Amino acid sequence: MTDPARTRATRSSPGDRYKWTALTNTTAAVFMSALDGSIVLIALPAIFRGVHLDPLAPGNIAYLLWMIMGYRLVQAVLVVTVGRLGDMYGRVLIYNSGFAVFTFASILLSFDPFDGGHGAMWLIAWRLVQAVGGSMLTANSAAILTDAFPEEQRGFALGINQVAALAGMFIGLVAGGLLAAWDWRAVFWVNVPVGVFFTVWAYRTLRETGKRGGGRIDWWGNITFAVGLSAVLIAVTFGLQPYGGHTMGWTNPLADGLIAGGLILLAAFVVIENRVSAPMIELSLFRLRAFTFGNLAGLAISIGRGGMQFVLIIWLQGIWLPLHGYDHSDTPLWAGIFMLPLTAGFLAAGPVSGYLSDRIGSRGLATGGALLFGASFLGLMFLPIDFSYWIFAVLITLNGIASGMFASPNSSSIMGSVPARLRGVASGMRATFQNSGTAVSIGVFFSLMIAGLAGSLPHTLTSALQQQGVPADVAAQVGGLPPVSSLFAAQLGVNPIQHLLQPTGTLTHLTEARQQALTGSEFFPSLIAGPFHSGLIIVFAFGAALALLAAIASALRGSSPEVKVPAPHETPTPDTAAASTDAAASTDAAATTDAAAATRTVRPGNRPASTGETTA
Asked: How would you class 277 by CB atoms within 10 Å of its CB: exposed for 0-12, middle for 13-18, buried for 19 or more?
């Protein structure tokens, strides 16, 4: 009879150093990739000043949208494809190549040779290439960790990885402000030394430990998926821009055509995947309750989290900070600082919840996190527009804790439910749900906010300007600008009234008292506060509803009754297929014992049983 303790020691000793190396490298990779997804949000004013482009000028809003959304769009489209390539040709190979691509693009981003629109296009183009490298990293990092760590430690490892990715989104807000205050190019320089070091380290230390198979590229599946999803997400950028006499572009035939065409192509993609012999994704994975409902819950939380991030930034930069005496040019940096409790909540809850999910299961933790996430939205909904900061800090801390409670167990549940040979594509599918949710959230939350502003902001702004002596025609012109311009002005940390009136020469014809009133820190925030608060209530109510849907989906991932995993010669059922393949993968890694063929107990829909449960 095999001694279980000696078997565990034999299994863990050779891989102990490697698994921590894999965790360190992949955690740095996903952190850096996520950081670059948000670091430009705060640095946008410095970036556009650096390339001598007025982002609020007519026609330039598209540059703003693509600087924000282009990175997310590429990641949403590519992660499944590169995850599949990792399954076919090696996850470490694709991962290492992603590090090299990401670093190379970062170098070229910091050497923009153009000005104006051409300079913005250079940045957008290389941001897209950078996102390709980021996709190769994020799609395969979770699969590499799942291969490297035993089941009893997998939740902890994936929890660390997930928290690093989500923390990167929020730390990027502060880092962008600090680096842009020095030089806008430093926003991209920061990736270069880190990227070079970890690229070399990854090539020297990481090795293939999981299964991989040959196969062919599903070209039709890749094309229909990439073009279809791209069309839908590109339509979002058109929907946020004014069209004709409307404040938004959802009546634009181009936007409607892109959405309709994208949905048709995605439907064709599903048909193709059911017919080809080597599909891009395994639709059979959706027969696994833990995989399906875990991804649906993750999508809902991702939409809520991404939209909340933008709304809170605008709230702080456009209203709260100016009302409390902060200069408009300083608000981007201070907004990032005042949102640090959100990051702290992430960092505190993520690893702990990942550790606990290995011991008590994922469903309860993830469901509780989703409910707490929704409760924090309800709390924010009842805050006055000029709130007391400590209450705000408590609520966003709870939101961060809730996200950490949800993210780690949910990722562990998804990745632990799939067959070992499909971990790369499963990781890519999980990342696609998350990145698509973040990209879609921008369109959804901005549309809700713009709809809330459009009813009263133009009249309110026009009347207030006339009361301060601004000529009626100029006041009507400024008041008639689309609300999206006001939102971006707040996010970019510029004084919108001064920015809009200065080119007209109106300010020079007003008294000094009226000039100070118009360009002071309270005029625009006071005007926008009422309409903005109406939009906030709609946005936060929608976020709370998304959190409730996520909690329901999380609870439906399945209970954890113990079932028998079939032996290798038996045909597994859909509910146990993933667990049996994971059992085989774990057994292959420990082939020194006779216990490989033994039947063991797992918890489907949650986490597989640990290898220590193997019987002699």
From this structure: exposed
The Cβ of residue 616 has, within 10 Å, a number of other Cβ atoms equal to 11
The helix (run of H) or strand (run of E) holding residue 62 is helix 61-89
Closest C-alpha to 301, from 229, 403, 396: 403
Three-state SS string over 80-102 comes to HHHHHHHHHHCHHHHHHHHHHHH
Q: Which amino acid is at 60?
A: N
Tokens of 316: 């702080």
Which pLDDT belongs to residue 492?
A: 66
What is d(CA 464, CA 470) in angstroms, rounded to the nearest whole number? 9
Cα(444)–Cα(303) distance, integer angstroms: 8
pLDDT score for 261: 94
Nearest Cα to Cα of residue 335 among 311, 301, 354: 311
**Mean pLDDT for back-to-back runs of 10 residues, the chain (616 residues):** 42 66 90 82 79 74 80 82 82 90 90 86 93 88 84 76 76 78 84 87 84 69 87 82 77 90 92 82 85 92 84 85 83 82 84 81 90 95 93 94 88 82 76 79 78 77 86 82 70 71 80 84 81 84 93 82 34 39 38 36 38 31
Q: Find how far residue 448's CA is from the centre of its chain.
A: 20
Predicted TM-score (pTM) of this structure: 0.74
**Which pLDDT score, from 0 to 100, does residue 337 have?**
84
CA of 375: how far to CAs of 226, 395, 402, 488, 551, in Å?
Answer: 36, 9, 9, 28, 12
Count CB neighbours of 121 within 10 A. 15
The span from the CA of 336 to the CA of 72, in Å, is: 20
CB atoms within 10 A of CB 9: 10
The torsion defined by the Cα of 136, 137, 140 and 146, in degrees rounded to 10, comes to 180
Give, in degrees to the nearest 5, the angle at Cα 225 between 93 and 448.
Answer: 110
Rounded Cα distance between 310 and 170, Å, is: 11
Alpha helices in 455-522 (DSSP H): 457-467, 472-479, 483-491, 496-501, 512-519
Residue reference for tokens 């996010």: 491
What is the rounded distance in angstroms from the CA atom of residue 206 to the CA atom of residue 19?
9
Burial of 2 (0-12, 13-18, 19+ CB in 10 A): middle
Rounded CA separation 67/127 (Å): 8
